[in-house]
Amino acid sequence: xxxxxxxxxxxxxxxxxxxxxxxxxxxxxxxxxxxxxxxxxxxxxxxxxxxxxxxxxxxxxxxxxxxxxxxxxxxxxxxxxxxxxxxxxxxxxxxxxxxxxxxxxxxxxxxxxxxxxxxxxxxxxxxxxxxxxxxxxxxxxxxxxxxxxxxxxxxxxxxxxxxxxxxxxxxxxxxxxxxxxxxxxxxxxxxxxxxxxxxxxxxxxxxxxxxxxxxxxxxxxxxxxxxxxxxxxxxxxxxxxxxxxxxxxxxxxxxxxxxxxxxxxxxxxxxxxxxxxxxxxxxxxxxxxxxxxx
Length: 294
Prior knowledge:
By secondary structure, the protein is of the alpha/beta class. It contains 13 helices and 9 strands. It has a 7-stranded mixed β-sheet, with helices on both faces. The chain has a two-stranded antiparallel sheet with strand order 4-6. The radius of gyration is 19 Å and the shape is globular. The relative contact order is 0.26. The N terminus is likely disordered.
């Protein structure tokens, strides 16, 4: 085991951490994999939609929205994220589905020393002790405390997009439900989740270094290198199959149906974009024309 698993959550689509040829004016279409913004056309689409790869939380100093991203958002009629982030029932849904099986609890899965460390971090992140989250899956609790890795004020692409959508009177929707996202995490055995959480608690410096590397790749828009780094640092392809590839497959028909209804600005974790099982390749396989926009 290693601490690498939790670094992956920053790009994966674990948005649960946030619960507490184009026209010149739209950017230039290029034949490159070094882009976070992609234009979706063809098939049954009367108007183009756009797909942005995000990093769910990062230091404010590293946050950016390019002119092309802003223009793509402005030309779209709705925003679709991994989760419907403006759902007023989101917190309630989180608490409904976050619990482990009866008999499982963090104070049983972790050593007393690790539980005490987790309690301190949870208090810093939420203002309450870990007891409130004692029945939560270890991966979900880790997502709550990850903000403690940031040395600067955090920024969120998802929350920023929700704010901009509201200002533009655009509807916000989700590609999956909280239950679906939590169920994907639940396929990783609880003892394994607890082991990763323990290692994260005891080596925050390594986690910060891994995360810093991913932020650098993200800012450089090197999505293929980013995916390779995620797989390498998550311990292997099996993990990415559960939390990346299967969810990518599930999203493709939903993206097609939503985009056929009206031009849409989609935004998902950048780790979902690249690779033969990534959203870009799957959209092309489904018959769409997908081009990078810079």
